[in-house]
Each structure stands twice: as C-alpha cells, then as structure tokens.
TrEMBL record:
Residues 13-268 form the Protein kinase domain. GO terms for molecular function: ATP binding; protein serine kinase activity; protein serine/threonine kinase activity. This is non-specific serine/threonine protein kinase. The keyword Kinase applies. It comes from Handroanthus impetiginosus.
Amino acid sequence: MAFSSENAFFNKYEFGKLLGCGAFAKVYHARDVNTGQSVAIKVIQKSRVNNNVNLMANIKREISIMSKLRHSNIVKLFEVLATRTKIYFVLEFVKGGELFAKVAKGRFGEGMSRKYFQQLISAVSYCHSRGIYHRDLKPENLLMDENENLKVSDFGLSALTDQVQADGLLHTLCGTPAYVAPEILAKRGYDGAKIDVWSCGVILFVLTAGYLPFNDPNLMHMYKKIYKGEFRCPKWMSPALKRFLSRLLDSNSKTRITIDEIKRDPWFRKGYKEIDCQEIEDFGAVVKEEEKKLVDLNAFDIISFSSGLDLTGLFDDKYKALEDVERVTVEESPEKVLQKVEEVVRAAEGVKLRKKKECGMELEGQNGKFVLGLEVYRLTDRLMIVEVKKKAGDAHVFGDLWRDKIRPVIMQQPNLQVAGN
C-alpha cells in the first residue's frame, strides 16, 4: 500500500487511497507514522456543515457516542483532529470491507448467517446497555475484519437516551428506506431499541435469503409493505428461522421481540457465546478547544438535510415553494441525472450549460441574468441527493426552470423530496 508523506498531517498520519465518498465526508486509508498502524480517516469539510446547526450537532454527538464504545464488534474511534477547514475522525481500519459486498455475491447458509447475527446482536446489546441506539443498521454499515468477524460502523445517525422526550420515546425521523421500522413511517414516537431490532431482522433476512424482505421499485409501495409487515420467507429457510424472523419483523413494536428474548431464542442460541466487553477506556477522542462549539447526525436528517422530514410527502406530490436552495433524493446514478439535465438544457430556450464539474454543473439563462448551480451527491448505493442553488438572478425564473423543466425529468417516480432550507 503506497502512502504519501506529502499528505501527512499533525506529523502523525500519512494518507493512502480513498476508500469511500459520501455527501459530507471522504474516508481514506492512512498510516500512523509513529507506530506503522493502519487507520481509516474520515474527513469532513467544515464548509459543508458550518451553516447547518443539525449537522454540526450530529457531528458532536457522533464523537460523544463513539468515544464511549469499546467492543470487539464495533469500529473504534481513536481520536478527532481538526484544522481551520476540516474535521478528521481517526478510526480503526477494517480491511475486510462491507458485509454488503460479501452477501451481494450470494446468500449465506444459516450457520454463517447465525454467526454474523450473533456478533451483531452482541454489539447492539452493548450499545443499548449504554443508552445508545444506532438507528441506521444495514449491511453497508457492517464491516468485516481480516478474521471475518463483524464490526458495526457509522454512528452518525445514532441517538442517546437524553434525546428521549417526555413520552419516553424518540421522535426524529431516521433510517435507510429498506431497513426503516413501521413506527417511524407512521410518524409516531418510537423506542430506539425496538427500531434497531427491526433493522437487525431485515439484515438477518438479507443474509439468509439474499434479497430484501420489503422491496419495490416504487418507494411508496415499499413503505406500504413495511408498514403492514408484508413479507414472505423463501422455502429453503428452516421453520425455526422463519418463526424467529416473524418475531423480529413484527410490525407491532409492542409485541416485537426484545434483545433479551433474542438471546433466549433456540435458533439464535446455537453456538452462542456471550462476549466479555472491555471496560470503557478514556482513550482520548479529543476535540481541540477551537472545536468545542461544534455541536452532534441522524438518517432522515441526512437524507433531508433538515430536522423534520414529513414523510407524507411520499404520498402527496404537492410542489413546495422553492427558495434559494432545494434538495431532492432520486434513485438514479449521478451520470444519469446529469445526462438528463443536459438534455433539458439543450431543449430549453435561452438556457445554456456554463460550467461542468465531475458531479455537477452551472446553468446560465437570459444572457447571464441568472445562474443556477446543480450538484449530485451519493447517499447510498441507490439513492442520490440532487442539490440546486440559485447563485444569481431572479428567484422566480430560477424556480420556473427547476420546477417546470428539470425537476419533473429527474424525478419520474415517487421519491423522498425536501423543500429548500
């Protein structure tokens, strides 16, 4: 693995290759020059979050949560560093990749699925015992180490018990669409432990079936299946596993199986050994004094870039007034989105493509009287965020171009949609 000393920072880390890229952060393989240890470094551009109080708060909460966790099946946070423009999370490097990539090659047998599920439940149980709820469990957030042991990652959407409201429940809408629990879709308050159990059930189904229990090309139809708990187990599953899954994926949160009940289930208990957790160490996830003002992320908050996404928008396609910024979520590749926009521009009178970037472009109209910026960010393997900004000119003209010409073309089926912030 080649590292670049030119990219070394704080006289401690040398950067290697880019491992992944999201809407707000990039993750690199790096090396500690003092010990030779491999680490993963998540780099967040402050300019992406400085004007969003929710995102700033979420970053602080993620640091707070990960600094509390020491478990063999949870990715470790070693330290947090910052410069004037960037925040760096220095994390345990897990070189086996995502569990998602492994299961994408083919479903697992029940024995292997049970092993990974036992490790997942051990990690989730540990978190819950410390008042931490992950809220975005999915195979993409489960990594594999060199010994093929599971590591839970990405606590950016997690919640702490101090976020529970007077009714004893959490209320922030969060989760990845295919893994989100019915009570979240219903916009009711929810028990953080129960929604994690639901997501664990979806993961177990995916491991053993090789596909999602709730899936539909139409997002609205998929959510309706989730809300009703409509799924069918494949014939090759054992009766014991089918019974177990029916309790994990119980659409009634009050009767859904608990973590303690999971550990007593006959299918789960086969070969299970409870892990002795290390005592939580004060391992120095230090945020420098200049970063104290950063305040802690959550799944639909990321999808919506706001604190209160109303899911009724999934079932009601009313246009919301456009301000200076609007973001929508689509199920298209960035290349396809940009291709569609170019086709619209070619057909639109008086509009031209002024500048093209790797994942975005600038559009100009009326001889420079208005300029529109458009960028596409990858949220998951299927979901992209399209962000449009009025950079100059009349808001009404900007709104007409976006609302009447571009938006209908890139959104040809019901998708998550959010008005400008």
